[in-house]
Design goal:
The protein is of the alpha/beta class. It is built from seven helices and seven strands; from the N terminus they run ββββααβαααβαβα. It has a seven-stranded mixed sheet, sandwiched between helices. The longest helix is centred in the middle third of the chain and has 15 residues, at about 65-80. The structure holds guanosine-5'-triphosphate (GTP).
Length: about 200
């Protein structure tokens, strides 16, 4: 186990009230957070979103990616279901960090695609470690989920970490003229389902 569960409190939102649970990485003290909606106990698989931090999309309304649209859509789906989990996974920029993501955006403005830009900066296309997410689910007492994602790697890595994924639920939202090349590149090079408008 790489995480400990360190704090929790209610979080009222426009979707209803969540239980916000804070986790800390044991080696680095870096924090992650889960939002729990409704009763997640029992045998029925829990609708779950693993959302990787994207300051620009989630908080600053960027149209360069689909992240903010996916975040809203996932919260809509969880609230409609009446139960679910959103893991907010603090690995900004597919794990390269905010400053490097800004550098990658500058390269994309010069014609690199999102994968080539990461590589030009010396990073793999996706530097994220998803085993933290399996730890968060285990610490929440959940081992069976329906995962809201377009990314086949998340399904594979979580399954390998012992989480049973009974369904992959697509989250194909947020396509716009500013992110269509980015979404097409993710589908072609990283295997994602294609984002739609
Ligand atoms: N390095 C890099 N990271 C990006 C870029 N655009 C968005 N991100 C980051 O990508 C992460 C989200 O990854 P995505 O590939 O959009 O989606 P995913 O999490 O793999 O898959 P989904 O579950 O379908 O959302 C967030 O951490 C964003 O900050 C980019 O151009 N370069």
């Amino acid at each position: 186990m790489q995480l400990t569960r360190v704090a929790e409190a209610k979080l009222p939102t426009q979707w209803g009230e969540f239980l916000m649970v804070g986790f800390e990485e044991i080696s680095t003290q870096k924090d992650h957070v889960a939002l729990v909606f409704g009763d997640i106990t029992g045998e029925t698989p829990v609708l779950t979103r693993i959302h990787s931090e994207c300051l620009t999309g989630d908080a600053l309304f960027s149209l360069r990616c689909d992240c903010g649209f996916q975040l809203e859509s996932a919260l809509d789906a969880i609230a409609k279901e009446g139960r679910g989990i959103l893991l907010y996974h603090r690995q900004e920029g597919r794990g390269i960090g905010l400053i490097n993501k800004i550098k990658a955006y500058a390269l994309q403005d010069k014609g690199y695609d999102t994968v080539e830009a990461n590589e030009a900066l010396g990073f793999a296309p996706d530097q994220r470690n998803f085993s933290f997410c399996a730890d968060m689910l285990t610490l929440l007492g959940v081992d069976k989920i329906r995962l809201l994602t377009n990314n086949p790697k998340k399904v594979r890595v979580l399954s390998e970490a012992g989480i049973k994924i009974t369904e992959r639920v697509p989250l194909q939202v947020g396509r716009n003229p500013k992110n269509s090349h980015y979404l097409d590149t993710k589908a072609a090079k990283l295997g994602h389902l294609l984002g739609r408008s």
